[in-house]
Amino acid sequence: MQFGAFLPMFRSHGTDTPREPWRFGDPGTPFYDAIIATIDLRYRLLPYLYSLGGQVAKQNAAFLRPVAFAFPNDPKTHNLKAQLLVGDELMVAPVLKPMEYGPNSAPINDAAKTMDVYLPGGSQWVDFWTGDPEAGGRTIKVDAPLSHSPLLVKAGSILPLGPSVQYANEKPGAPIELRVYPGADGIFSFYEDSGDGWGYEKGEFSVIPMSWDNSSGVLTIGVAQGSFPGMLRDRVFQVVLVKPGQGTGIEPAVKTSEVRYTGRFITVRL
Question: Is 148 helix (H, G, I), strand (E, B) or coil?
């Protein structure tokens, strides 16, 4: 589940073998809650993952990437098999070893475990779950409880998150939370299309360019480029500068700078 949530196609209930969340326990039990949390993370990340899909379709980008793909000059990434990049912004280290179990199939230890995660040099990183900044070029221990696997965000990233939903297009007009990870400058292309059909192959899509200037603390949301049937002309972005305890995990950020975007150039000082 923790690995599958970052694949281009994620079907949490599987095929042929029953895998629905309720088959693993009741709400409030470790396995059920971990499965639901992973599905919620996937849905929250849909704006980012869909934008990444747009890069794949329009720019021949790769959805999943070996860490060495982005950091070829760091020899420690060349044989790094337990971590992967999702786009330019996210580095995932899914838990690959099963838990140990005791009598009656009870987990011996469901408390937080840790994993060694290598952070490539030349970049700073931020823990998605805690907001803690981490310097690159070293191996760190990262918490890896049953509820989630280690997830690091490259400094300078602009990460769009959608609402918590039960299906992809449940809340099409809901605000988009833009998490800005300080420590470096960054850019992002927010991609949208109708969500169904082949219109995107005929130019029916929109890209909103975004950039972050770390020294001035200014996020720029540029002029929307392109259009498609059903495109929102007026939307809300909730911008948050990530730091420990702010803009972390899958819960919506509490303190945000809310801006209304109508397709025109705007700036937000954080």
Answer: coil
Task: Please tell me whether residue 204 adopts helix, strand or coil conformation.
Answer: coil
Q: Which CATH number fits domain 158-269: 1.10.246.10, 1.10.10.10, 2.60.40.2340, 2.60.40.1180?
A: 2.60.40.1180
Roughly how many angstroms between the first and final C-alpha of the chain, as a whole number? 35
Length of the chain: 270
Question: Could you tell me which residue, 157 or 16, shows the higher pLDDT?
Answer: 157
Q: What is the dihedral of CA 84, 85, 91, 92, to 10 degrees?
A: -40
User: What's the rounded Cα separation, in Å, for the pair 143 and 132?
Assistant: 12
- Residue 264: count other Cβ atoms within 10 Å of its Cβ: 9
- CB 147 within 8 Å of CB 34: yes
The answer to whether 194 and 187 are in contact (CB under 8 A) is no
Q: Is the pTM of this model over 0.70?
A: yes
121 CB-side CA count, 13 A: 8
Query: What value does the mean pLDDT take over residues 201-206?
Result: 96
CB atoms within 10 A of CB 75: 10
* Chain mean position to CA 231: 23
* Predicted pLDDT of residue 138: 96
Q: Report angle CA 9, 167, 204 to the nearest 5 degrees.
A: 70
